[in-house]
């Protein structure tokens, strides 16, 4: 009797059995879901942290939310290179350990500096684990199942926001804000054990670590956010704020120069010669700018103005995620029929329209009307995100596909950080001005939220027009790839 050899990949290794592949896929999806969920869950904790013994200022509240997202975004691309050099499974396990340690530090934080350090540490862990999950997933899946595996991973990333809202709502309904972080400690430990048992080891690849470029990218982003967040408190014309914006420009210029001269830059600026890549990156960033502007304001609006509990607030936005997932399935099909520019443009227009409609909401707005506005935004995001993601990944040369994926993630998280910073700053300034003039707190918050939504809508609309123009620009694929075959010869 003869037995057939187990199927192998193109590099000749045996593929895991079906049960092992399913366990690996589920573990990788669970990892990205947990990492992404902490972004959304944090918004629900803002009212409890604001009323806590930490006594944070409005600017400090923004830093508590944004420190995680900023570090997550800034380290996402270099973390991918780190995994290539030292091993994806080891990097993933290290990321889960760092993520859990950051959650633990946040839970026991006696003051704001320690809480900020814990948030930043969790962000670094998330940056390590997210790109590693995709690599492990693709390695474990047979060629015929890779598309389905990537689709499951992408869905988990999108569901993370819903899970963060629902899970965070359950915790914060019954526990103080520290309970949110305590909840992530056993999650990280459980995932660590699961990944250690089920994930295969991915062969290491040659990868250069651009420490200088990574540092420049993070510092430039930090300087920009410092200027935006601290501007109202310190004064827009104050030396620290003007200096922060000037430093952000200077560091950005040095980053570009470094990228042009480095043999292996963390992100080569020449990639942005591609119109579709430029447009896709800007489009992803502004999509998450609008969506996280919504998440930041919405959690406070429903609790402060509508009087919702944390539990009701968390579940009030769950339909948004279901709407997004339903439409995402058809976004790419529509783009193939009508073109990327029309599909992405329609999606960004719907996001902007939804934000404008939300700016009209008040204490007396029925929930079903409010939900309709949210669903409009979810449809827009479902149309825009897959189209813009494909524009980025399809634009880069094949040997730089990992960079394209990392760029997409960095644009997503940086857009979220900017959306929270800009709208949060508008909210704090307008709210303080309203209460200072004797306006009732709920009315003052409603007025501030309205202005924040209108500004966010304007940003999405203007950048969206530029994105559509970029997607309509056509260049030959061969010429573009040849021009950007960076140092490959």
Write a structural description:
- The protein is mostly helical.
- The chain has helices at residues 18-50, 58-86, 88-107, 112-140, 146-174, 178-198, 211-234, 239-261, 275-304, 310-316, 318-338, 340-358, 367-395, 401-436, 441-472, 477-483.
- Helix 1 runs antiparallel to helix 2, helix 2 runs antiparallel to helix 14 and helix 5 (146-174) runs antiparallel to helix 11.
- The protein is globular.
- The termini are far apart.
The Cα radius of gyration reads 22 Å
| Range of helix content | over 70%
- Strand element count: 0
The first-to-last residue Cα distance is: 51 Å
The pLDDT mean sits at 83
Largest sheet: none
Number of helices: 16
Instruction: Catalogue the unreliable spans.
Output: 1-15, 475-489
Strand content: under 5%
How do the helices and strands follow one another from N- to C-terminus? HHHHHHHHHHHHHHHH
What class would the helix/strand composition place it in?
Answer: mainly alpha
Query: Which word captures the global form?
Result: globular
Descriptive terms for the model:
single chain, 489 residues, disordered N terminus, mainly alpha, globular
In short:
It contains 16 helices and no strands. It is mainly α.
List the helices and strands and how they pair.
Elements: H1 18-50, H2 58-86, H3 88-107, H4 112-140, H5 146-174, H6 178-198, H7 211-234, H8 239-261, H9 275-304, H10 310-316, H11 318-338, H12 340-358, H13 367-395, H14 401-436, H15 441-472, H16 477-483
Helix pairs in contact: 1-2, 1-4, 1-5, 1-6, 1-9, 2-3, 2-4, 2-7, 2-14, 3-4, 3-6, 5-10, 5-11, 7-8, 7-14, 9-12, 9-13, 9-14, 9-15, 11-12, 11-13, 12-13, 12-15, 13-14, 14-15
